[in-house]
Amino acid sequence: MIFVITFLVFVMLASAIFACISIDLLNAVIASGLVSLITAILFYTLQAPDVAMAEASIGAALVTAIFVITIRRTERKE
Amino acid sequence: MRKIIAIILLFILSFAVLSSISKIPFGISKTKVGKYYINNGIEQTGAVNIVTSVVLNYRGMDTLGEVTVLFIGAIGLMAILSTITRKTEKKLTPSSSILSTGCKFLFPFILLFGSYIFLNGHLSPGGGFQGGAIIASAFLLKYLGCYEKRINEKKFKVAESLGGLVFILIGISGLIAGGYFLFNFLPKGTAGTLLSGGIIPIIYIAIGFKVGAEISGIIDNLMEES
Fold first, then answer.
1. Nearest chain B residue to A70, by CA
2. Residue A72: is its pLDDT beyond 90?
3. C-alpha angle with apex A41: A40 to A45, nearest 5 degrees?
4. Does B172 have pLDDT greater than 80?
5. Contact criterion met (CB < 8 Å) for A69 and B134
6. A4 touching chain B per CB within 8 A
């Protein structure tokens, strides 16, 4: 279990850094959605299912969708 | 030169944060109020899910603040979007029959799941915010899959206003009945059944409607003019 969580934390770190440095904003949005998803899994393993549910539905689904729609209205490259 | 200063500052900051955090043991609560909630929460509020009893009963005022913040955010977005002049409508490519049938099929089930989450907020993990977000994701699926069948924006506004109104009215009637805002004046029932917890299920239904309608309204506003 601890290996899985360590792997997830490293994936989360990598995708967070990628979201910061990426020039294509669509990739950055998807990476930040991945960060939210892994945060939800970590909340669940820390026995906080309420917060995990909110994080998965708002952070991973709705915020990503709203950002994608906003990128469609504006520009894709930074 | 500026980069070197920035790196040095970053090192100092990370050292400060690490040295202060490393002494706190992980996962051990030092506060006494948490134990009080765990020991007395079910008796005093009638809600089995202790998180819910904290969110809506002991800290009900904070929840009202959260709902207000979301409301102000939605209004701000609406105000910004209304100033932008409308572009000529782009012709959207109609979705394929598989996609539109799939989203028509899935839409009521996601709505049902969302309402299950906020109806059982006092029994199982979940609550108004989570259920509302799931309902909003159902509307997002509908807008992505079959955009032609949009929902009238006024219905969102009516649901949102009703949700907020019910929350405030229950709070004020608690003020009249018991002496303070959001007093749990309804009978608490047996803990663990659906009809228990006094005002908690009613407020969670109101919050579920409000949050779902609000986020669906945000998505509706954003998709409308693009």
1. B222
2. no
3. 115
4. yes
5. no
6. no
pLDDT at A44: 93
> Which residue of B29, B87, B134 to mutate against A (max A Cβ within 10 Å)?
B134
Task: Kindly report the pTM of this predicted structure.
Answer: 0.85
Domain boundary assignment for chain A: 2-73
Interface contact B140-A50, CB threshold 8 A? no
* DSSP helix/strand/coil, A77: strand
**Computed from CA positions of residues B130, B133, B139, B140, in that sequence, does the dihedral angle turn out positive or negative?**
negative
pLDDT in the model for residue A19: 93
What are the extents of the domains in chain B? 2-224
Partner residue facing B126 (CB), from A50, A61, A73: A50
CA nearest to A63, candidates A22, A19, A5: A19
ipTM summary value = 0.87
Q: What percent of chain B has pLDDT over 90?
A: 36
Chain-chain contact of A53 with B215 (C-beta, under 8 angstroms): no
Length of chain A equals 78
Q: What confidence score (pLDDT) does residue B179 get?
A: 82
Side chain identity at B49, as an amino acid letter? Answer: N
